[in-house]
Design brief:
Elements (H helix, E strand, L loop, with lengths): L10 H11 L17 E5 L2 E5 L8 E7 L13 H20 L5 E8 L11 E7 L15 E7 L2 E6 L9 E5 L5 H19 L6 E8 L2 E8 L5 H6 L8 H12 L4
Antiparallel strand pairs: 1-2, 2-3, 3-5, 4-5, 4-9, 6-7, 7-8, 8-10, 9-10
Helix pairs in contact: 2-3
The structure holds zinc ion.
């Protein structure tokens, strides 16, 4: 039994995936809907499909295509589409979690060149892990922070003990019925990160967790990762957190 979590990467599938991007006549695979095989479910322009290149051993990899607009993003969706997307995505994630087929289910999104993503078209990933429980690596302090805003019991905060370092935003949901405020806060975090946070920031990740019977979303602006984290697992915490918090409150909320 391994003392830490690790997944095995299938290099042959990885090579096929890279070859598909380097084709001369590359077309966005999620724009070309007619050629998408293995559609699991759909709601309007939102699609859940099996991943064509499942590079991870002992997993079930699916892709949730968020819209048919290749250049849209969570930060730009009209509210109706935003709510529809998160209701659909969370429902599919929890259905996989509750199926009993997986030790745990990863639910995340990559956006931009520093996020680790390969396809520009807005999409998320739901990955069932047959043998690994990601919760093993979670600590309650990863989600603790200073509250930016709170609505219907849903808390939007900025981390005081981030997992990787610098700025991480958390949305903590006590009840599954409050998905609209969750979606609103995720949209605000994505919009702030891409438009106001730092002129050079063009990337973020969104991660979902089930932790202590709560649903938690974490939005992480991405830059080149600090060597102190890579080499020593030491996160650096910015002394600008209070300033960022005040700026978000001023731009997105009326707080007196
Ligand atoms: Zn596309």
């Amino acid at each position: 039994m391994l003392s830490h979590l690790q997944l095995y990467f299938n290099s042959n599938v990885g090579k096929e995936k890279i070859a598909s991007y380097s084709k001369h006549n590359y077309q966005c695979p999620f724009c070309d809907r007619a050629s998408l095989a293995n559609v699991i479910d759909e709601d309007g322009t939102i699609l859940l499909v099996e991943n064509k290149y499942p590079v991870l051993h002992d997993t079930y990899q699916t892709v949730l295509v968020e819209t048919n607009d290749c250049c849209a993003d969570i930060s730009t969706y009209p509210k109706e589409h935003l709510y529809r997307l998160f209701h659909f995505a969370v429902e599919k994630w929890l259905a996989m979690e509750n199926s009993g087929e997986y030790a745990s289910v990863l639910f995340f999104k990559n956006h931009g060149p520093y996020s680790g993503g390969t396809i520009h078209h807005p999409h998320m990933q739901l990955i069932g892990l047959k043998n690994l429980d990601y919760q093993t690596n979670l600590k309650p302090e990863h989600f603790e922070g200073i509250t930016i805003h709170e609505k219907h019991g849903v808390v939007f905060n900025i981390s005081t003990q981030p997992r990787i370092g610098f700025f991480e935003f958390n949305v903590i949901l006590p009840e599954i019925t409050q998905l609209n405020p969750l979606a609103d806060y995720i949209q605000i975090a994505a919009h702030y990160v891409l438009r106001h946070f730092n002129k050079s920031c063009n990337s973020y990740n969104l991660f979902f967790y089930l932790h202590n019977e709560k649903i938690i979303a974490k939005i992480v602006p991405r830059f080149i990762t600090s060597p102190l984290f890579i080499g020593y697992s030491i996160p650096q915490v910015s002394d600008r957190a209070e300033q960022v918090l005040a700026e978000i409150q001023r731009k997105y909320f009326t707080i007196r």
